[in-house]
Design a protein that fits this description.
Length: 444
Amino acid sequence: MTDLYQLQRAMRRMRKQAMDRGVVAILDVGSAKIACLVLRFDGPDRLRETEGIGALAGQSSFRVIGAATTRSRGVRFGEIDAMQETERAIRTAVQAAQKMAKVRVDHVIACFAGAGPRSYGLDGAVDLVDSTVTEGDVARALAACDLPDFGEGREVLHAQPVNFALDHRSGLIDPRGQIGNRLSVDMHLLTVENRAIQNLIYCIKRCDLELAGVASSAYVAGISSLVEDEQELGSACIDMGGGATGLSIFIKKHMIYADNVRLGGDHVTSDISKCLQIPMATAERIKTFNGGLVATGMDDREMIEIGGETGDYEHDRRTVSRAEVIGIMRPRVEEILEDVRARLDAAGFEHLPSQQIVLTGGGSQIPGLDSLASRILGQQVRLGRPLRVQGLPQSATGPAFSGAVGLCLFAAHPQDEWWDFDISAERYPARSLRRAVKWFKENW
């Protein structure tokens, strides 16, 4: 826990140094593609710190000056599976983005989708030494949160204060400078498997780059795809990627829950490939150009030529109706949406005021997905695209780039997290000291 706290603080310092130099790279490591955007921070307010423990603490203006994507290799279920292949793919994307930007990049901020995320809601409270809340009081309140025993081999990825209460007044965004006697805080904690983070750090170091920040794809996709009212009133963002489907719930402009389903668009492609006995590349083409989820009377008569290069004339001239393709795709998409529904129910999503659901990511572009999702999820559903960012190429404005654009916003407008406050070594959150004492008693 102490090591992670120091690592995150070091990455935050690196991010500020990179922004001070004016250039930082954004790296979205996905199962289907690896996207790299190069950002240039400019203007006199580049590092202007604003008061507030909110979604816009430390605002900065930026512009995208380089962008590149490449087919992902060595990544399965949103996690690095083959180090050398992933390294080559990252190098390809970063070098192409640097060439477009005409600048060398040393620091990257990365996001990934897998690693089995788990959410926890924590709370802590302290009595104020002085009647006015100071930065140190906020740090003490965060340190008073008692972390659950989330098990070996897991690390904290996000630890964000989402609500403050001063005496009997709740719903405070930033309590600093206000007067009271007792300060309480609610914190959202997201843990992931440690090996996934370590693999990502090691892979990026092998590419001669420094990691200046890491985030969950589900979180950053929500930042870019949900409009302000949706983030305020309580909405869910479903980021349908190639190897995994991320899920995040926001309320009061803070993420309060995140999870993922280890199924995505690549599994739909795989189903088409197996059923029609065709290569994955051909199955991907059929899914993209002829796929759908809602069959009509016309689809029985619309024939799709499969094509092929086996040399067998009869085999290469096969045709399949669009209705058959829909029949292959629909059960897998239904399975993904039903898994998402189960996770929303477990999170208590039905108790939120708005209950809007936004579908984004490359897998959300299948025709008919919104109507099928509204039937299974039973809520208001819309298809989401990322916010427009200055300098972003037209080719990178689709739903598939929600994670990359959200990571740009995460880099420029970071929400304060637990490691942004100076917490004395003996007061780290969680039962770090208690667990150490318990281990000592059991082993000596």
